UniProtKB/TrEMBL annotation:
Pfam families: CofD. Its main location: cytoplasm. This is Putative gluconeogenesis factor. It comes from Streptococcus thermophilus (strain ATCC BAA-250 / LMG 18311). InterPro entries: CofD, CofD-like_dom_sf, Gluconeogen_factor.
Length: 324
């Protein structure tokens, strides 16, 4: 039987959790990764070298690779804050940046690195040029730059992207649209709604492909609300924002965690951007999506609340097999 084709779209720390488990299933995986990050190591390298930010691509590469743990530790090693110009840079970011320069683009670098690290599946940056994320708030104020958006005290109305270094309309990387159109399922998230997921979806070619594809579009709803982005959001609010930006009722399936995060569990010093658990609005969800899967998808680890990759991957496989 033909392997199901699943394309996962997002960024940040959310999608690597899912990809790490999904790669062990009998499935053809493509990861489409955001390129709007302008903070930290990625932002510094992006500004110096005018390349697409490598950090989210690095984490996805590790998640989809069968590299030994020692290689992973080397690739993910972050230079000490006392190391001058290297301070705070993960070694993997520098490797991706160097190979991007050598190969002429980050897209080409990722194709080489997926072979080098024996990656299960394909990894594409959402665009082949760095993008700038813009947020328009309900009071009309606009903020440019992913790392600056959460610092403004207001509710986001919508986001859009522009090319960081020219006036051209943002375009999807080669093969991204084909991957979406030829998939059996598209998976959005988990991850920061406005700064990890939507920067991909508002690229016009990707948005149009999501509207036109015959694949089911599945959203993995966040477990916690996020400071500066989704304060007071229910699960239905998350899906409504996605549908509003896509301009159509695109979301077919929603995975919702119903397991409670223990009160006072979250380590607020380390996870200070996450506020409280997302509230449930199942009536609202039924208006926004065709199928709602509510189950225990929770993994508690090191003071944080995460999705349990194995449980999510099992449910995704169930949904994709049911459709076929």
């Amino acid at each position: 039987m033909k392997k199901p084709r699943i394309t996962v779209i997002g960024g940040g720390t959310g999608i690597p959790v899912i990809l790490r488990s999904l790669r062990h299933k009998d499935v053809d995986i493509t990861a489409v990764v955001t390129v709007a990050d302008d903070g930290g190591s990625s932002g510094n390298l992006r500004n110096i070298m005018k390349l697409t930010p490598p950090g989210d691509l690095r984490n996805v590469l590790v998640a989809m690779s069968d590299m030994p743990k020692l290689y992973e530790r080397v690739f993910q090693y972050r230079f000490d804050q006392t190391d001058g110009a290297l301070a705070g840079h993960p070694l993997g970011n520098l490797i991706i940046a160097g190979i991007s320069e050598m190969q002429g683009s980050t897209y080409n670098a990722m194709q080489l690195l997926t072979k080098f690290f024996h990656v299960t599946g394909k990894i594409y940056p959402a665009s082949e040029t760095a993008l700038t994320l813009h947020a328009v708030f309900q009071d009309g104020h606009e903020v440019a730059g992913e790392s600056s958006i959460s610092q403004y005290d207001g509710m986001i109305e919508r986001v859009y992207v522009t090319n960081a270094y020219n006036e051209d309309v943002p375009k999807a990387s080669r093969k991204v649209v084909d991957a979406i159109m030829n998939s059996d399922m598209i998976v959005l998230g988990p991850g920061s709604l406005y700064t990890s997921i939507l920067p991909n979806l508002v690229i016009p070619e990707i948005r149009q492909a999501l509207i036109e594809t015959k694949a089911d579009v599945t959203y993995i709803c966040n477990i916690m609300t996020q400071y500066g982005e989704t304060e007071h959001f229910s699960d239905a609010d998350h899906v409504a924002v996605l549908n509003r930006h896509l301009g159509s009722d695109v979301i077919d399936n929603v995975l919702v965690n119903v397991k409670k995060v223990p009160r006072e569990y979250m380590a607020s010093n380390e996870f200070d951007e996450y506020l409280v658990q997302v509230e449930h609005d199942f009536e609202g969800l039924r208006r926004e999506a065709k199928t709602i899967v509510s189950s225990n998808f929770l993994r508690l680890e090191n003071g944080g609340a995460f999705h349990h990759g194995y449980l999510v991957a099992e449910e995704l496989m169930h949904l994709v097999r049911k459709k076929s």
